[in-house]
Amino acid sequence: MDFDWIFDWDLGMGPRRKGRHRGRGGPGRRFFRQGEVRLALLSLLQDEPGHGYELMKRLEERSGGMYRASAGTIYPVLQQLVDEDLVRIEEEGGKKVHHLTDAGREELLLHAEDIDRIWKRAHGWKDWGSTMGPETAEIWGSWGRLSKAAFKAAAKSDFENTERIREILDRARKELEAL
User: Fold this and answer.
1) Is the dihedral of CA 32, 37, 38, 42 positive or negative?
2) All structural domains of the chain with their residue ranges
3) Which CATH architecture is the domain 12-131 placed in?
4) Whole-model pTM?
C-alpha cells in the first residue's frame, strides 16, 4: 500500500511560507468547507449579535486561532445572509450590528447537524492551535518523514514488526515529552 498521498500536504509552514497556515483547517486544506462560513456565522449570531470584526474574532476564538477570517471573506457572506433575510442589520454605536432573524433561526434548525459537525471539527483543531506557530514550523518536515516511514514499514510488515514500530514511536514520544 502506498501512503505517499498522506504526506503530500501543502503544509504552508516552511520558512518561505511563514504564516500561510492561518485560515487553513490543518495541513493542506481549508478550515471551512464550501458553505460552512455561512453556517458558522449564523451559529455565532444565535449566541449573540455582532458586527463584522467582532464575528471575525469570534470565529478565530472558536477555532483556537487556526482560522483567521479576512474582511474579504466575512463581509460578503454577511451581506448574503442579509439578502436572504436570515440576518438583519441595526445601527448601534455607529456600527452595523448583525442580528439573527426568525428565518435565520429556522435555517439553523435545518442545518443543526452540519453546524454541530463544524464546531466539533473546530474544537479538534483548537487543540492543535497552540502548537502550530512559526516556532514549530521547522519540525513539520521531520514529523512528516517519520510518520511516512512508520506507515510504510507497518504496511509491509507482519505483527512482530508492527510491535517494533509502535515501540520505536512510543520511545520517541516519551523522549520528546521529557524535553
Assistant:
1) positive
2) 12-131, 133-179
3) Orthogonal Bundle (1.10)
4) 0.59
